């Protein structure tokens, strides 16, 4: 490590990553979280919220294609989409690539972050906020969904892990929240979510989320991909009551990708299918899991990645 | 980061990983390389050679299953195996799980490292060095293969990346070396190798190696897996003149895994197949690659992960 | 920072020092504290207890000469010496350089540390433990002094700062403890102690200790020196009821240093006198200080270096 | 170390300091050097040039009082002052506290740095640049002194160490440069300079500079002080042909400090005198030194702090 500026991120309680910063574009605190935006040589701009790297300019396409397209491609004709989180606008950007989409509602509680993204992170949103089909709401997503009965073809959930007992996001990882999400899906609707790192010692976020989602949806499927900017393999979940969202009939995916003109950079039909194939040890960890997170006993993660259940005291 | 001892590893020239060490078991230098062996909380013992983490106790099974079994399972009845590198003995251990194997020859130039592994890394070799079918040679693998005309059903190559113009390992990544390897394969033989990290900014080791191997073998297939202890996605290559080693007929893999009684922890039949499916951007990087590494102009990697060709001056 | 092993020490809550370790000689935990002993290029062996570097091979002579000789030289003929702490034996070594010394009692609670020092830190003790004049006691120094009425010409206190409310050492920084020390001094006796780093933001250890000692002794004098291995300027205190220990008459120091044949490497007469001259800002901080640490309300330091008083609950 | 932004500075080749940055105010490169300006909790704003911390808001008064006042107080009535380096304006500020000063010329080659300091570092210059007695020149100091025959009562040299064979500052540390400086002194004039860290393993900058200055001036005196923001003890040199600048007659310093109304925060008369008292090991290192830096063979420092002589090839 040469002299200069670094960003330090604890990946586990025992392993940390230092990233050389060429320039710091912004740092401070919104009402909800610390933020850091800086430039690096290999990953371009990097966005950090609280202690975690959220996204890097050079590889955000991998993360956002992985979060968005399996769900959108699983749906025969997605017209309306709701996004929980996703403040920098790249999830919205990917959603708006679908010409069938008539309405995309993004709900991120952190209005200051959204404003900052508009100015400082154009590489992410690429103008998506200005699309007439897009609506941005800066409120608590659960509260908003509870009070607004509109329904959607696809709901995408992009939240940080609920680390720490005090974490208010814990109530966005419960059976009751997923039931609310399900009520806001149109018939034939599908939900996708980011669901935790898949690290040897940190398997618990993913299995518990999988187990909890499975309480609510008839079909719950895990998939995974390596996100270079995180130096981590991440888990995702696709769920639907209507159909198995990972069981594409021969050629369907390929046709949809071509017909919908998505210009994918990382995904193709066969790789999407391969993402749904899990290694044996992870499969077993998911099968073994018994913890179901509820509003009465929502789970949270310890710094070690262990899952614990306890009442949430705001 | 709490007070205490850390191991610092530069993953790219701009990003570094610090690992908290609970205890240092050994550190020093053999005739060939620096070594560090220490204990960590999450990954157990960690082995570092020169600047790179080679293996961790808790996840080495992922790396070694990934390196060994696709090749061994591709072969209908592997009886003889040659291992280039692999000094800590875990590749040998996985190979010896096959009851058909009558002879496994491991060739690692670093005799001091092999001796140290026998004492300090029993979790890796698990007694493999004492198996009567095993032979350990501590010489330069290329020299040894050139002078010993024995042939093998499977050859496994487990070498570090040829980083730096002075790196003597550069001559183990050339057309001529792979031709030598091919001459030492029995008819129907197959070769597998570790083939570099797959990081956004570090794609060059893998494409160049793929392109070079393809000069020599009729069938060259890349596959990949996430290695938690490296915090990286790694590429591997399987090659054969006899058959496409990634084209298993329906049910073959599953049957062989069951019949051969391998006790796999990470791999299963469907995940092995999924590892051979590459994302679009990596596929394109491989297809675009034109560099072929030869003895006259062997390639090397810069610290940035770029590949360059230049004569090797020992 | 090159790849390899480092020791990380937080010097303030915001500034940390990384030291490259060439080799780790020992690491673990005694009943009382974590310990780390390692080799470095510039400072030789380094001893760390809990989170603080205690001493380095190459500069320990500076620290121990500074702690020991002002007190020993202030005394006209030191025959008996009691050392609180000082487990590695270098304070004892410096004390035994005085031929007048007939009895040197070192009391360090950590018997495991003392044993380790005998084997691993010969550069510190240099055989001092084997001197027939030396006695080593491994008990709580306060308890021992309370129950043993022997008295001494010089008492040297070498303790870590009482950082943290739970720190048991808090009761070794109170008026009552210093009164006990005074009762164990012979007439004409003198006490010296290490008294905290003198860092801009960390002035509170020193002023509070000075203020507390002044409650007990007629003459209390601060002095300071830079300890390279700590990268810090450190404060020390000399106190006596009999005479002002920093007011040497012309030529006395020089004569005593010469006559006693001490072979000093860092100190000479004029530098000893200069160490007692404090800069204006530190003088003012000491004068302003009003906190007196008592058994009822012993002070402790926060991580920020602020001093707080609160009852100690063992 | 908590998550967040850090500045990494190598203090020796083996020891490094990380400083937590709350906010980055500027970072980039002028024509001459890299710069970083950031805010920290304990030291306030920090200015870094190339790889070294130059100054921190909270302790710069210690450094600048130490550099400026011994020379200014040694002079009976300083009217004209020349400053080599000192781009942030704090040396100038201290100089202008003397009402006798009629002309203060600061010469720093880095015009971009000076402009930045005006805006971003008001805590340093405190308006000094606007004083009608001040002149700022942004040229090479040696070239300017050679072509401008004006003479001064006091010359203050505030330069970074000449680390590295390519360092153009090497020609500002030679006999010929100090002879030029002497020619630009009025009769009775005095020069002061920052002269390197005094660290166990880094003694060579100071002894060599002392030895070189002594070739030119009849009276050459070293002094030292701990600079908290550097975590280092620093050496300084005062030189004059007219008188011994460290030999103040009884009461002179005290009187001058009072009469000149300087409002010193760190220095007082007795501490100034104490700064000129060196420890035995440093005295011996200075006495042992034989290297004299000349234009033909200017010295430079290696990263290890060793001094070497070699021709300078621009």
Automatic annotation (TrEMBL), chains A, B, C, D:
The active site is at 158 (proton acceptor). The keyword Transferase applies. It catalyses: S-adenosyl 3-(methylsulfanyl)propylamine + putrescine = S-methyl-5'-thioadenosine + spermidine + H(+); S-adenosyl 3-(methylsulfanyl)propylamine + spermidine = thermospermine + S-methyl-5'-thioadenosine + H(+). Pfam families: Spermine_synt_N, Spermine_synth. Pathway: Amine and polyamine biosynthesis; spermidine biosynthesis; spermidine from putrescine: step 1/1. Signal peptide: none annotated. Homodimer or homotetramer. Catalyzes the irreversible transfer of a propylamine group from the amino donor S-adenosylmethioninamine (decarboxy-AdoMet) to putrescine (1,4-diaminobutane) to yield spermidine. This is Polyamine aminopropyltransferase. The gene is speE.
């Amino acid at each position: 490590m040469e002299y200069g500026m670094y960003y330090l991120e604890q990946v586990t309680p025992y392993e940390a990553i230092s990233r050389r910063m060429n320039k710091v574009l912004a740092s401070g605190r919104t009402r909800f979280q610390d933020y850091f935006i800086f430039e690096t040589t290999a990953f371009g701009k990097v966005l950090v919220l609280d202690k975690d790297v959220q996204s890097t300019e050079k590889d955000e396409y991998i993360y956002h294609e992985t979060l968005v397209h399996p769900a959108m491609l699983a749906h025969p004709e997605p017209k309306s989409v709701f996004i929980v989180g996703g403040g920098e606008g790249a999830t919205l950007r990917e959603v708006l690539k679908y010409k069938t989409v008539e309405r995309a509602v993004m709900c991120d509680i952190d209005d200051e972050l959204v404003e900052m993204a508009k100015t400082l992170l154009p590489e992410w949103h690429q103008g998506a906020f200005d699309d007439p089909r897009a609506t941005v709401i800066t409120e608590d997503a659960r509260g908003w969904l509870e009070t607004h009965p509109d329904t959607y073809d696809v709901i995408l959930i992009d939240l940080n892990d609920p680390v720490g007992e005090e974490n208010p996001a814990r109530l966005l990882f419960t059976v009751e929240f997923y039931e609310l999400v399900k009520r806001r899906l149109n018939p034939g609707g599908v939900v996708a979510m980011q669901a935790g790192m898949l690290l040897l010692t940190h398997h618990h976020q993913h299995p518990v989320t999988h187990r909890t989602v499975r309480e609510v949806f008839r079909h719950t499927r895990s998939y995974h991909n390596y996100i270079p900017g995180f130096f981590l393999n991440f888990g995702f979940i696709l769920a639907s009551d209507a159909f198995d969202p990972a069981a594409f009939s021969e050629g369907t995916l390929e046709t949809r990708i071509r017909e919908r003109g998505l210009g994918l950079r990382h995904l193709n039909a066969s790789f999407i299918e391969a993402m749904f194939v899990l290694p044996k040890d992870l499969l077993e960890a998911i099968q073994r899991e018994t913890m179901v997170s509820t509003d009465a006993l929502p789970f949270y993660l310890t710094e070690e990645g262990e899952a614990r259940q306890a009442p949430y005291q705001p």
